[in-house]
Amino acid sequence: MALLEIENLSVNYGAIQAVRGLSLTVEEGEVVTLIGANGAGKTTTLRAVSRLLRPVAGTIRFAGRDITRLPADEAVKLGIAQSPEGRQVLARQSVQDNLELGAYTRKGSVRADLYEMYERFPRLGERRDQLAGTLSGGEQQMLAIARAMMSRPKLLLLDEPSLGLAPIIVREIFSIIRDLNAQGVTILLVEQNARLAMNASHRTYVLEAGQLTFSGNSAELVNDERVLQAYLGG
Ligand code: ATP
């Protein structure tokens, strides 16, 4: 049984059909990449999985359970967390407040988890009392990922984690993604930087205009003529 199973998913914004009949699976332990041009429907797909958008058709199953109509906070409790495009940290709250927010669906103390995040992201630890808005872009991205991890997800949805970051920081973010996966977190990754994302993932799905065009093992698709032409600069 796949950890995440999306079947025939369609999501509209009014008259705009953003996602049309999309089916994909993510197995436990995998990193799966979703690539596609701007507006292909990648963010919409992630937001449907995290239950921030309501599909017009299709089924989303998580660990065998139908979550298509589950409220977003229930999805978090089940083990789905998203790090959104553009980080969306609370700029006027401290780093620590942002992290605690990530654990809002959990009962009891989150001290141990905070400590764990500060170990994993030492720069967040050094800046725990600083307002999140004063962090660098890379630090804000780390905060967005750490905030998502505070809910102890089984499935982590990452939307454009490299967006707007310097190459050296991007490498750091991808090394964090690898570490999280090595520690058992399953990841569905949306990325503009297709090559990096494919190198860091087991499988890749290619979306065009809301529809799946093809998919396969990332290691094979990086050498696929269609992917090379359209997404890897020929
Ligand atoms: P990007 O990389 O630009 O974020 P994407 O692949 O994530 O692209 P989506 O953001 O999912 O694409 O958008 C899919 C389609 O839905 C696009 O045509 C987009 O213009 C449209 N769309 C997205 N959000 C909205 C919205 N809130 N209202 C109306 N249309 C929207």
Automatic annotation (TrEMBL):
Pfam short name (any one): ABC_tran
PROSITE patterns: ABC_TRANSPORTER_1 (PS00211), ABC_TRANSPORTER_2 (PS50893)
Protein family membership: Belongs to the ABC transporter superfamily.
SUPFAM superfamilies registered for this protein in UniProt: P-loop containing nucleoside triphosphate hydrolases
ABC transporter domain location: 4-234
TM annotation in the entry: none
SMART domains reported in the protein's UniProt record: AAA
Highest taxon, organism lineage: Bacteria
InterPro entries: AAA+_ATPase, ABC_branched_ATPase_LivF/BraG, ABC_transporter-like_ATP-bd, ABC_transporter-like_CS, BCAA_Transport_ATP-bd_LivF, P-loop_NTPase
Keywords from the named record: Amino-acid transport, ATP-binding, Nucleotide-binding, Transport
Keyword Secreted among UniProt keywords: no
The protein, known as: Branched-chain amino acid ABC transporter ATP-binding protein
GO BP annotations listed: L-amino acid transport
GO molecular function term, any single one: ATP binding
Keyword ATP-binding: yes
